[in-house]
Amino acid sequence: MVRRIKPVSRPVKAETRVRATAEAKRTAALRLPAPGEVTIPAVDVYETRTEFIIEMELPGVDSENVKVLLFSSRLEVSGFKRELGIPQESRYTRLEREYGAFRRDVVVPGAVDPSQAVAALENGVLTIVLQKPPRKRRDVEIKVRRNAG
Known about the structure:
Strand order of the largest sheet: 1-2-7-6
Distance between the termini: 83 Å
Helix content: 10-25%
Structural class: alpha+beta
Oligomer: single chain
Radius of gyration: 26 Å
Largest sheet: 4 strands, antiparallel
């Protein structure tokens, strides 16, 4: 007996596996972090003609608990959000806010002047302003070559 394989069956099986994997990742991303895990704050990056602006949501975080490091092509923000104490005779019926360590790496989309970087934490939003270096213009001399002969 000759066994025939449908040419479509292999791609369908592969596609089913890919979809199952993607679904598993999506549901894992929706869960709250377990105690001890690092959370990843939301971030917006935009630019003007002269600077890059990074805004990161850090509600309830004190500025002394935030560390900002600027490397050549990336920005690293890390810190710790302390849990607020609740009265002794009470208990949580719902706990959705995240506490503990957080960390976020952001790719800097272009060249910046690290000596002019500024960061401010206000109303739960960390704003980091990175100045672009001034554009340098240079005149290029054009030489004319003439073939002798």
